[in-house]
Amino acid sequence: MNNFANNKIVLEAKNIQKSFNEGKNSVDVIKDLSLKVAAGEFVSIVGSSGSGKSTLLHVLGGLDRPTEGMVFLNGQRFDNLNETERGYKRNQYLGFVYQFHHLLPEFTALENVAMPIMLRKESQYSEVKQQAEALLERVGLSHRLTHKPGELSGGERQRVALARALVTKPALMLADEPTGNLDRKTAVGIFELLSELRNELNMAMLIVTHDEQLAKSADRILHMQDGIWV
Ligand SMILES: Nc1ncnc2c1ncn2[C@@H]1O[C@H](COP(=O)(O)OP(=O)(O)OP(=O)(O)O)[C@@H](O)[C@H]1O
Ligand SMILES: [Mg+2]
Q1: Share of the chain residues as helix, strand and coil, in percent rounded to the nearest 5
Q2: Which residues approach ligand 1 with their CB closer than 6 A?
Q3: Is-contact 174 41, C-beta < 8 A?
Q4: In testing the pocket of ligand 1, which one of 16, 18, 20 has its CB within 8 Å of the most ligand atoms?
Q5: Who surrounds ion ligand 2 at CB < 5 A?
Q6: Whole-number pLDDT of residue 2
Q7: How far is it, in rounded angstroms, from Cα 128 to Cα 133?
Q8: Per-residue pLDDT tens digits for 62-109
Q9: Distance between Cα 172 and ligand 2 center (Å)
Q10: Whose CA is nearest to atom 7 of ligand 1?
Q11: What whole-number distance in Å separates Cα of residue 18 and Cα of residue 39?
């Protein structure tokens, strides 16, 4: 039994399958995957390129629908909601870090990070700005607040994307290669920040990574190959 056995389950996936239809060829990317992540737990997913890690993360994060199977967020069915409802739940409970950052190019770093809270329409920009600034400082970017994504390095963009995922203090962070573009020292700094936030917020983390050190620091490592756990 692990340390999290008595914690609430924040994410559960049951028998997920995902196929893409391309004309008459159907590609079965996720064949049959189930998983549970408990509050405060850090789970890493490793597997070779093309094994289906990003596809799975998109399905778990409600960015895409499974072909078969079910996803539950905080005990409630999530995958069958319509796009607006899924967007709402994502904003309430999830922080998502894409493999390729997906920042909004016409907004500054600060505005990109503030965006998820602004979408809630509950706070004034002045308050939100302070929270976004504080987080950008924690990822080492207080000198880049007004830069737009096109004016940032790859690693800087990745850190802005991390700050954006964390600004809402999510119950669960799903991250696809969050340290992929970072040097070792910066990656270690980001990992320390994630550990602090995990302690502060009891945030669960599901992280896809090729970074062996990051993967090993997880409570549990899942190995994926050709759309199944191995
Ligand atoms: N929209 C799509 N249509 C068709 N095939 C797709 C689509 N998205 C992904 N695939 C295929 O699914 C497989 C898994 O892709 P995925 O991006 O999930 O891999 P990955 O494990 O994240 O790889 P990497 O480590 O390189 O990021 C790949 O072979 C890819 O070509
Ligand atoms: Mg990927």
Answers
A1: 35, 30, 35
A2: 20, 22, 27, 29, 47, 49-55, 99
A3: no
A4: 20
A5: 54, 99
A6: 65
A7: 8
A8: 999 999 999 999 999 999 999 999 999 999 999 999 988 899 999 999
A9: 19
A10: 20
A11: 26
Q: Give the Cα separation of 31 and 67 in Å (integer).
A: 10
Interval between CA 124 and ligand 2 midpoint (Å): 36
Q: Domain 9-227 carries which CATH code?
A: 3.40.50.300
Residue nearest to atom 9 of ligand 1 (CA): 55
Inter-residue contact 229 to 223 (CB < 8 Å): yes
Parse the chain into domains and list their residue ranges: 9-227
* Ramachandran quadrant class, 56 (left: phi over 0; alpha: psi -120 to 50; beta: rest): alpha
Kindly give the number of the ligand 1 atom that is closest to the alpha carbon of 47: 21
Ligand 2 centroid to Cα of residue 21, in Å, is 19
Token digits for 52? 């289906």
Q: According to the 3-state scheme, what is the secondary structure of 19-83?
A: EEEECCEEEEEEEEEEEEEECCCEEEEEECCCCCHHHHHHHHCCCCCCCEEEEEECCEECCCCCH
Contact 4, 37 (CB under 8 A): no
Mean pLDDT, range 45-53, rounded to an integer: 96
Residue 228 confidence class, pLDDT cut points 50, 70, 90: very high
